[in-house]
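Marked as duplicate of an earlier ticket. Keeping the data here for the record.
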Amino acid sequence: MLKPLPDPDWLDVPRPTSPVCILTDDGSPMTTKLADSLTHQGWKVVVLSFPVTIVPRKSALSPGVERVILEDMSETHLQTQLTTIATRYGVGDHGRGSEIGAFIHLNPLFSFSRQAGLVYDVAERAIAKCVFLIAKHLKPSLTTAAQTGRSYFLTVARLDGVFGTSHEVNFGAIGAGLFGLTKTLNQEWTQVFCRAIDLAPRLDPEVSAQCILAEMHDPNLSLMEVGYSSQGRVALIAQT
């Protein structure tokens, strides 16, 4: 059942020595708003854009925010681009070429008709696979970055803001699997701040960005997933 939550307290957590944040591009203004907010907080934001065959639109970026484009969805190409980001923008104890401090995945909004039933979209499947591979390749970097500040692995889906319990939105089944990935990493990467966030599709982009920032500064480490909708901030609890 849903459990209402208060707004999170704001903890001024130290950023890692290498404050590089990889932010995936969902093709919406939310990417722009969040990238700007992270930049203002001192992060070096690098937006990772998917191929146009997967996400047709690219979000507008402000000066100072870099973009790296995936030309295809192969693991080899992904690993090359991640290495390029770390080498070009990462700064550690020995200069450039160090770790990445944060990864935030904004899952694109996939909406389907109610008549379509349970949907396993091909593009959403490719994105989910890519996020799993990113987790694989960023594990050493994020765990190292956690030694000098709070490092992050966040996934942001847009189901309905209440973990699919409203039965009002026909979202893709595969995107919902991001919650399972994030909660698993939270158990395995004990030093990394991992959280899955469900945002209602109708939330304003600026509000959405502020919700994500608030979760990044939450001192409560017991939460693994939260939702935001017209009902406010919620979590799921077991009902007996």
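See parent ticket for discussion. The longest helix spans residues 122-145.
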